[in-house]
């Protein structure tokens, strides 16, 4: 090996060691925080299970943060506007007009409050388009995470609309205040944005955004096609896993479930994606899931695709939970799926991937 080659190899090893140390430090910090939370929960449960449940509820309704969830894959800024939900939350919306093409087009409705990213007035022009595709982020995410889909969808003739849910990204707080939100709030935000910006040709949703999108469909939101990336389906199971993590007693668990149901204004079972698929009409859907997803195991997506009427499964390898959103082949597959004129696809497809 040459001197320069040996030096490069040493640099790579040093970088990996530093990255490993940073990950280890983050794990230790997270373990310490969890130990403190468990200790507080234990004290509260001994005094008042209701107080412990309120504390757990506050934790459950707090979206996570992190660099991955704030990643920005937008190639260019779109036109900014705001929409107010039925509960009064201010939702920031970003839209991109279609690139001129020869797709089958529909006219875009007007948007009088729209402005460009630098704050100038920018009413939506009446150019024709193939339809409107909405991008719905997950819990703790924001609209920039799905930015890799924007330009290919525009090139296919679609107007693209992305938004930040209440207490996410640039939007205002939800009904519980800053840095707090709920799953029904995310569903309501999508419905409000679609009501303002036009009928949905498709919704591309990620992680918990898949469950909130399905909830909106259950509540009557018309959508021609869905793309569900790294889908979460069992919300009650998520609640139980959260309770296990915090070591909640049974009385505290029961109280927490009751509080969550009161916040949702409905039985928690109605938030379950699988229950909606069994009991309500749903549009065709493409389910994308990676075998290496550490946040939502691959069998969750595979089972959802199998149970979904007119469902297709697209399997990837080595992309995990977030890199799916910016993988060129995944993006291409999504655009092909939502485009009306396309080649027939089998019920299940695989994208071969080399793990990083």
From TrEMBL:
Chain spans, region Disordered: 1-26, 98-123
Entry keyword annotation includes Manganese: no
Gene Ontology MF, one: hydrolase activity
Annotated keywords: Hydrolase
Biased amino acid composition, Polar residues: 1-10
InterPro entries noted in UniProt: AB_hydrolase_1, AB_hydrolase_fold, Carboxylesterase_BioH
Annotated ranges, domain AB hydrolase-1: 133-333
Superkingdom field: Bacteria
Transmembrane segments: none
Protein name: Alpha/beta fold hydrolase
Organism from which the protein derives: Cellulosimicrobium composti
């Amino acid at each position: 090996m040459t001197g320069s080659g040996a030096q490069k190899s040493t640099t790579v090893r040093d970088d990996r060691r530093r990255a490993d140390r940073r990950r280890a430090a983050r794990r230790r910090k997270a373990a310490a925080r969890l130990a403190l939370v468990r200790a507080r929960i234990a004290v509260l449960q001994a005094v008042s299970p209701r107080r412990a449940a309120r504390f757990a509820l506050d934790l459950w309704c707090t979206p996570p943060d992190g660099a991955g969830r704030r990643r920005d894959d937008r190639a260019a800024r779109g036109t900014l506007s705001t929409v107010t939900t039925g509960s009064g939350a201010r939702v920031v919306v970003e839209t991109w007009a279609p690139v001129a093409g020869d797709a089958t087009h529909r006219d875009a409705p007007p948007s009088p409050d729209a402005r460009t990213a630098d704050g100038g007035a920018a009413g939506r022009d009446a150019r024709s388009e193939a339809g409107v595709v909405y991008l719905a982020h997950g819990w703790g995410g924001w609209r920039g995470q799905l930015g890799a889909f924007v330009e290919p969808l525009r090139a296919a003739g679609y107007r693209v609309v992305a938004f930040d849910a209440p207490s996410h990204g640039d939007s205002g707080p939800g009904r519980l205040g800053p840095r707090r939100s709920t799953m029904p709030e995310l569903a309501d935000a999508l419905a409000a944005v679609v009501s303002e910006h036009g009928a949905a040709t498709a919704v591309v949703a990620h992680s918990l955004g898949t469950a909130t999108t399905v909830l909106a469909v259950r509540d009557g939101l018309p959508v021609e096609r869905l793309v569900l990336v790294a889908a979460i389906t069992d919300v009650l199971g998520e609640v139980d896993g959260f309770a296990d993590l915090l070591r909640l007693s049974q009385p505290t668990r029961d109280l927490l479930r009751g509080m969550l149901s009161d916040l949702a204004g409905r039985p928690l079972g109605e938030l379950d994606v699988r229950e909606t698929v069994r009991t309500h009409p749903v549009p065709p859907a493409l389910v994308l899931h990676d075998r290496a997803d550490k946040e939502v195991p691959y069998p969750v997506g595979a089972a959802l695709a199998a149970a979904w009427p007119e469902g297709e499964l697209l399997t990837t390898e080595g992309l995990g939970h977030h890199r799916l959103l910016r993988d060129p082949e995944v993006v291409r597959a999504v655009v092909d799926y939502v485009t009306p004129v396309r080649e027939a696809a089998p019920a299940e497809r695989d994208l071969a991937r080399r793990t990083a």
